[in-house]
């Protein structure tokens, strides 16, 4: 039996009529034998792929939305060499130790099972919008999180409107020299290099070579923002994050050179400057205040959404306000200019974010001043309070409504945080 006849029988299986007609066509036109063999081989491969996907559990199939294991192994990853970092701790999109492959500029990065070498999830370099490297807060030993944001996967853009959106990724590395055998042989490094410095170098080398605009790893810049809150777990080290709540979920805000990051629970959010319409402040009390970010996704005509981050420590407001003013994020009228600058549109007139900072107190300073004045008034009331009056005379105390509106939200009021997601 010829190879073509065998492939036809295998491809069409129980379709006896199709098998018969195919064999008759080859007998009449022998030159079609190779064509029928190729078609049969393609049908067989599709059937095998369908079976492979059907055998996967639902969760695994969902994680393959970046680049499927079959595509990653048999298509883009055959185009060149790649470097491997073994046994990295991932938490997004799944909590697991995996090996990370970094392909050349025409491929991407993929995470593989440490035992089976099977691809768990992957993303092409062309689909990467942003990668940030951030210190992990509240850890005795210094660690760093690498966060990969795909195009339309910034946590703001509506996934249903964007269609197929790739998975975000997050893995953690210690701030130490790498252990032997955890990097592939092609990765050279000096004695003073760490996991962080090596991975940043490898990522930047590939990202700057990709087609289109280049992307570089974004890290915190102390000239942009540092926290004034004492960090007992890292004495002498100023933090570059602020603790906050979004609904009933706690997390951390990082004020970076290219935008504002929120993490580290799913979904991660990156507010690039061009996505922000405006930033404002509410509930400015003696101990805490809320930060409200009005932003829109990357899709054309995306609607503006409001994101409220609550219970930020009042001690952070000065540095946050300086950051917001420096990039003129408080001014919604400049939102289109920020987007034009991102798109490199010529002929945009007027102020560019970061230039000619406005003088005078900003919105947060005014609100903070009002909170301070209120505190002074309360102290004055305390000094003039007559225990015998029990609030019967006009200036002795405040009404229930005033107390509810002016009471500071501190540690004793943590349960008052809005539970809406």
UniProtKB/TrEMBL annotation:
<dbReference type="InterPro" id="IPR050454">
    <property type="entry name" value="RTT106/SSRP1_HistChap/FACT"/>
</dbReference>
<dbReference type="InterPro" id="IPR013719">
    <property type="entry name" value="RTT106/SPT16-like_middle_dom"/>
</dbReference>
<protein>
    <recommendedName>
        <fullName>Histone chaperone RTT106/FACT complex subunit SPT16-like middle domain-containing protein</fullName>
    </recommendedName>
</protein>
<dbReference type="Pfam" id="PF08512">
    <property type="entry name" value="Rttp106-like_middle"/>
</dbReference>
<dbReference type="GO" id="GO:0042393">
    <property type="term" value="F:histone binding"/>
</dbReference>
<feature type="compositionally biased region" description="Acidic residues">
    <location>
        <begin position="372"/>
        <end position="406"/>
    </location>
</feature>
<feature type="region of interest" description="Disordered">
    <location>
        <begin position="345"/>
        <end position="421"/>
    </location>
</feature>
<dbReference type="GO" id="GO:0031491">
    <property type="term" value="F:nucleosome binding"/>
</dbReference>
<feature type="domain" description="Histone chaperone RTT106/FACT complex subunit SPT16-like middle">
    <location>
        <begin position="239"/>
        <end position="334"/>
    </location>
</feature>
<dbReference type="InterPro" id="IPR011993">
    <property type="entry name" value="PH-like_dom_sf"/>
</dbReference>
<comment type="subunit">
    <text>Interacts with histones H3 and H4.</text>
</comment>
<comment type="function">
    <text>Histones H3 and H4 chaperone involved in the nucleosome formation and heterochromatin silencing. Required for the deposition of H3K56ac-carrying H3-H4 complex onto newly-replicated DNA. Plays a role in the transcriptional regulation of the cell-cycle dependent histone genes by creating a repressive structure at the core histone gene promoter.</text>
</comment>
<comment type="similarity">
    <text>Belongs to the RTT106 family.</text>
</comment>
